[in-house]
Structures are given as C-alpha cells and as structure tokens.
Amino acid sequence: MSKKRISSMKASEFGCGAAHQLAITAAKAAWEIEDFSKLTGSRKLCEEVLSCLRGVARIVPIEGMIDCDANPSHCGFAPLPKNQQPPFRSRGIRKWDSEKTSLTCVSLGGRKIKGEEWREFIFKSHVFPATVLDHLYKSEHQHLIPDDWKNVSAVVFGGTIYGGCNGVPIVRGLKWSSDRWQEVLVELNESRIWPEDYWILVEPQEFRN
What we know:
Radius of gyration: 21 Å
Distance between the termini: 53 Å
Mean pLDDT: 84
Order of helices and strands: HHHEEEHHEEEE
Low-confidence stretches: none
Largest sheet: 5 strands, mixed
Number of helices: 5
C-alpha cells in the first residue's frame, strides 16, 4: 500500500506567527527555555518527536520519574501563582523513592492545630508538590504507594496550593478508604481544624538536591 509522501518543510516557511503560537502552547504545557534549547540543539530528538507526531512511535513515561515542575491537575480548582507557592517545595525531575520521604505531623504538644498553622509549616518545609500525587494516583502507579500510608487518615502533598472556594487555600492528599486510594482536599484557613491523623509528606534533608 502506497503512502503519500509528506514534503519537507523549509526553515523559511516557519514564520513568526507559527513560532509565537508554538511558544504560547509550550508555555501552557510548562515548557522552559532549557527544553527548547535541548530540542533545537538535537536533530535526533526532533526526529523522535516527529515520529510521535506522525503516529509511528509513542512516548512511554518512565515509571517513577516525576517532573515536579509540570502543571498539576486542577481537581476542580486552579493552583495559585508560582510566587504564592511554598518556596522550598521539591523541584525538577525526581525519581520516586518512598524510602527518601517521611511523614510529618505537627501536633504542637499533642493538641489539634488549625489550617493556618499547617500553612506556616508547609511554607518553611521541603514538601512535595501535587504532581507527585498525580503520578502515584494513576491506577498503573498505585503499587508505588507505601502500604503504611494506609494506617493514617491522609497523606498531604503540601507543595502545591490551590485557590479554593471564597479564596480559602487548599492542598490535596491521598487517603485509603473503602479498599481503594481516594483523593482528599484540605482547607488551610484559620478556623479549620485538621484531623489529628493527617500527615504531610516531606523530603528529609539528606535526600534534597
């Protein structure tokens, strides 16, 4: 069966309008200037991307490799601007390893604490963003979730803060309920009392980049 040959594009045919539109779309997909530099500097990489675009190859994510700077899912709410996110959240490409994480519960002497106090803790801690939650929550990756997480009410990923209802900031977490993993939304307002057994996933100092 013959296939119509696709004519090669000349570099001069790629005008400013197309380049501008590509830049807009790439920015929405969380591309950085460094990503463009890699693509424009490698003919082989361009050929691999082209093969995917034309349907003769496919991109298969590497299990456990997570881009912490990628856009997380919205879960009904949009993330706050980057300048309003926790400054010490995990960044860059990370290989998921539950042994290099820890769960922290800020009990403050055993008393239950308010959402605002949790927010203060999140902003001074090395917390994981919601992109890590997105990766683990996929059915094909849930085997990567440690079994001992089932023994707490919820594990919160405080590195991504969303704008909730009436401007109240929220964070996302995972909980084991009814024999399956479910997502939970937690408000960070002043009056909200966090359940005593909610834990925040943090990155110990010895494993930070």
